[in-house]
């Protein structure tokens, strides 16, 4: 082990379970995995502290009102679109793509210096926001995606880098001329990224490719079949968009004669290594398919409010134990903050429950009498989706448990210089030298969840290495 931490540790091992461990000791191995986590008073912790292998290693004390939390995961972010994030949300999805998204991606591919500027700033922003892992949609060009991969690796952040594949683009100046060309291009990207990451020790290879057909309307069956085959041959994950908006779904049905999810399934693109963004039209018919294929879904609550006619049924997905994480969907969502997405996910769930009650004619407190399922989602469940849910869906840990990668952020609620609350927090009942009990800690963490920002983030580690 190379480092020790002592203090309070917070995580969500499963949806709805907030685990707060006070006065614990956490040890990290030389390769960046959690090797020890137990109460400081336990024999194992005391033995560790007295071990000769730890002579000279002083445990990092987290602070009286600070805690370690797993880093956030963003399962859906269009990196080139960060160029114009915060603008251009005035159109339906398919029109928006043509006017804004394709244009930005085209610029990034044509100008490597611009790609350098945009991606360097994006990566820095992700650090500030506590996002330790991102699944990216890139652009169709190989060079720009390699720039993105290198920026993430150099910054010490995890990234799944998706070079877009699209052989039926509606934009004359931005697309790939054939399925064969597209498959050769993505193969070149896979080879180049593999060559780059091979220079790092296995546990420090933080970036990897993810095969990325943009979505069914711009991909031929030939291309989708070829990408599925390539993914299996190379052991690479696959991502796309599925059932995002009515206009997109109607386009698929008119051109293919099948629903979105059935096209993907028929061509072998739904499986344990598949990530599908949005899936806002998830219903009782689709749930068994997604569950059986073990597909992970990226819930993008902010962008869905702008770009989709329906909202993702997070309550139902959690109740069915489906694999779900959060996505910012830059630039369909204007903020890269996963904290913003967590809060929006709860708001949308409450609005869905309000609409359900209104449709049943419920009065206050009588929704249970009218039947049906309460659709609310609480803040601890949203925190789970932002941390453990997203990481687990991509084959990693996402909690603070022995054997999992040590990806953590240090959150300060109050400090010696800010005894009444750090940053935006105003905490009136904290007293230096007085310990919070379990209920007090839960209340304090909830207040951070609602009102905290980057000012509360005092450190960040990925694979055991401090990056911010």
Automatic annotation (TrEMBL):
Question: InterPro entries, from UniProt?
Answer: Amidohydro-rel (IPR006680), Metal-dep_hydrolase_composite (IPR011059), Metal_Hydrolase (IPR032466), Metallo-dep_hydrolases (IPR051607)
**Is Mitochondrion one of the keywords UniProt gives this record?**
no
Where on the tree of life does the source sit, at the highest rank? Eukaryota
Q: Which cofactor does it need?
A: Zn(2+)
Q: What's one GO-annotated cellular component?
A: cytosol
> Which GO molecular function annotations are given, in alphabetical order?
guanine deaminase activity; zinc ion binding
Q: Which Pfam families match?
A: Amidohydro_1 (PF01979)
Gene Ontology biological process terms in this record: guanine metabolic process
Q: Which residues form the Amidohydrolase-related domain?
A: 67-433
- Determine if Protease is one of this entry's keywords: no
Which keywords does this Swiss-Prot/TrEMBL entry list? Hydrolase, Metal-binding, Zinc
- What is this protein's name? Amidohydrolase-related domain-containing protein
Q: Which organism is it from?
A: Kwoniella newhampshirensis
């Amino acid at each position: 082990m190379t480092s020790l931490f002592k203090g309070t540790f917070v995580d969500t091992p499963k949806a709805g379970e907030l685990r707060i461990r006070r006065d614990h000791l956490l040890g990290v191995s030389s390769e960046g995995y959690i090797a020890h986590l137990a109460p400081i008073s336990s024999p194992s912790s005391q033995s560790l502290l007295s071990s000769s292998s730890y002579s000279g290693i002083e445990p990092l004390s987290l602070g009286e009102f600070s805690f370690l939390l797993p880093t956030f995961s963003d399962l859906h972010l269009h990196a080139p679109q960060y160029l114009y994030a915060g603008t251009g949300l005035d159109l339906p999805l398919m029109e928006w793509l043509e006017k804004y998204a394709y244009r930005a991606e085209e610029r990034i591919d044509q100008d490597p210096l611009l790609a350098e500027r945009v991606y360097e700033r994006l990566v820095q922003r992700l650090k500030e926001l506590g996002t330790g892992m991102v699944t990216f949609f890139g652009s169709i060009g190989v060079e720009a995606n390699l720039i993105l991969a290198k920026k993430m690796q150099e910054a010490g952040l995890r990234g799944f880098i998706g070079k877009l594949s699209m052989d039926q683009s509606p934009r004359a100046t931005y697309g790939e001329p054939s399925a064969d060309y597209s498959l050769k291009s993505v193969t070149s990207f896979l080879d180049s990224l593999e060559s780059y990451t091979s220079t790092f020790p296995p546990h420090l290879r933080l970036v990897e490719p993810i095969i990325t057909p943009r979505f069914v309307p711009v991909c031929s069956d030939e291309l989708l079949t070829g990408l599925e085959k390539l993914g299996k041959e190379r052991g690479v994950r696959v991502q796309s968009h599925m059932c995002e908006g009515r206009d997109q779904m109607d386009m698929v049905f008119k051109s293919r004669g099948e629903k979105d999810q059935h096209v993907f399934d028929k061509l072998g693109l739904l499986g344990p290594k598949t990530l599908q963004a949005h899936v806002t039209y998830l219903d009782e018919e689709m749930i068994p398919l997604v569950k059986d294929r073990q597909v992970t879904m990226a819930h993008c609550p902010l962008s869905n409010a702008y770009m989709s006619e329906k909202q993702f049924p997070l309550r139902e997905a959690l109740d069915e134990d489906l694999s779900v994480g959060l996505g910012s969907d830059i630039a369909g969502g204007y903020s890269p903050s996963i904290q913003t997405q967590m809060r929006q996910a709860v708001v949308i769930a409450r609005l869905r429950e309000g609409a359900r009650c209104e449709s049943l004619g419920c009065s206050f407190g009588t929704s249970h009498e009218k039947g049906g399922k309460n659709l609310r989602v609480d803040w601890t469940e949203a925190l789970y989706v932002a941390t453990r849910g997203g990481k687990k869906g991509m084959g990693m840990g996402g909690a603070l448990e022995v054997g999992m990668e040590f990806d953590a952020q240090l959150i300060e609620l109050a400090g010696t210089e800010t005894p009444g609350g750090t940053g935006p927090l105003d905490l009136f009942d904290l007293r230096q030298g007085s310990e919070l009990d379990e209920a007090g800690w839960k209340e304090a963490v909830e207040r951070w969840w609602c009102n905290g920002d980057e000012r509360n983030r005092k450190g960040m580690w990925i694979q055991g290495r401090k990056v911010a």
